[in-house]
DNA sequence: AAAAAGTGCAACCGCTGGAGG
DNA sequence: CCCTCCAGCGGTTGCACTTTT
């Protein structure tokens, strides 16, 4: 079978450009897609006058130029979703990305490799091991939930979307996040069809929903924390031990995905300290404090 | 101040599978 | 079926930038 690269080696592809995209190229691609739509990427690349493979154009569009693509650090909510879904699905980045509106599979993959795997290295645990997953649920995710709560209280007077995107983005991210930020601001808003609304929530029994009407399906318990998150509404409880995921794009065909996390097998987790509270009382648990510190490093927001 | 090491992320690569002729 | 084209996925790389020495 001829692969993508082979199919691009024919006529007209002998002077293909590679590497970083220029402002002019971005403008060409955006303008062309605004006028003609995307798809048929090889044809699109030629028609738009881009000396790029269709594959490269597709990647640039989906990962960077497409409207509604979020930039900057992942919010604690997004990190929670990633950790949960990865524990269930593994490296199914695109599948995970479907539950994080505005985030790309590439971004999630990079997050996992640079942050999560780095933490696994610090702990000297295989990031694919059950032990590491347990560590995530035991130590990391509760802390993320705390972050969510803090964010919630801090941003009660303003929308979370705005506050997280602005306050959680480091100077470095601002510098790096876009090659041509001003171009995106000015060009990406024009003549693009609205993206489908996407909602996710985690209910009182820690259930993740992807639906257009999850609020209708679940009463909202009083002790539940909820958070507006762009087009999504996310509900968390505080235990986060069992998560069920309902993909209710078609509500009549509820697709329940059980994300139950085995929380009763912590004996395999070879940490010296048993619980979170003790871990946070540094003097009594140096090792755990180290872990805690390392995780804080990861979450630098 | 400069070099080395580390980090983060955009972009590329190879592969797979579906669609259509 | 077989072949080609294409879209999409996950893994990997290259490099700009930051931090450390």
From TrEMBL:
Residues 151-199 are annotated as: Disordered. It comes from the Eukaryota. It holds the Pfam family Myb_DNA-binding. Residues 13-65, 66-116 form the Myb-like domain. Its main location: nucleus. GO terms for molecular function: DNA-binding transcription factor activity; sequence-specific DNA binding. The keyword DNA-binding applies. Residues 175-192 have a biased composition (Polar residues). GO terms for cellular component: nucleus. Keywords: DNA-binding, Nucleus, Repeat, Transcription, Transcription regulation. It is found in: Nucleus. Residues 151-172 have a biased composition (Low complexity). PANTHER family: MYB TRANSCRIPTION FACTOR-RELATED-RELATED (PTHR45675), TRANSCRIPTION FACTOR MYB62 (PTHR45675:SF30). This is Uncharacterized protein.
């Amino acid at each position: 079978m001829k692969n993508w690269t082979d199919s691009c080696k024919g006529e007209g592809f002998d002077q293909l450009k590679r590497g970083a995209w220029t402002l002019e190229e971005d403008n060409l691609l955006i303008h062309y897609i605004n006028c003609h739509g995307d798809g048929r990427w090889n044809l699109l690349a030629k028609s738009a006058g881009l000396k790029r493979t269709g594959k490269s154009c597709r990647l640039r569009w989906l990962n960077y130029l497409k409207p509604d693509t979020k930039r900057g650090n992942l919010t604690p909510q997004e990190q929670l979703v990633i950790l949960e879904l990865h524990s269930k699905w593994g490296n199914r980045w695109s599948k995970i990305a479907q539950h994080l509106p505005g985030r790309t599979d590439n971004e999630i993959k990079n997050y996992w490799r640079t942050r999560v795997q780095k933490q696994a290295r610090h702990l000297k645990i295989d990031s694919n091991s059950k032990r590491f997953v347990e560590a995530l649920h035991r130590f990391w995710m509760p802390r993320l939930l705390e972050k969510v709560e803090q964010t919630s209280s801090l941003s009660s007077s303003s929308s979370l979307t705005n506050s997280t995107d602005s306050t959680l983005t480091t100077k470095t991210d601002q510098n790096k996040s876009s090659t041509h930020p001003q171009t995106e601001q000015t060009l990406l808003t024009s003549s693009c069809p609205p993206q489908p609304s996407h909602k996710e929530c985690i209910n009182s029994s820690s259930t993740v929903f992807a639906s257009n009407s999850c609020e209708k399906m679940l009463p909202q318990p009083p002790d539940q924390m909820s958070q507006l998150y762009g087009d999504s509404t996310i509900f968390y409880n505080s235990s986060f031990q069992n998560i069920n995921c309902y993909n209710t794009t078609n509500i009549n065909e509820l697709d329940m995905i059980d994300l139950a996390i085995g929380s009763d097998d912590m004996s395999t987790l070879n940490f010296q300290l048993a619980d979170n509270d003790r871990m946070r009382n540094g003097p009594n648990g140096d090792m755990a404090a180290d872990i805690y510190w390392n995780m804080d490093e990861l979450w630098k927001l």
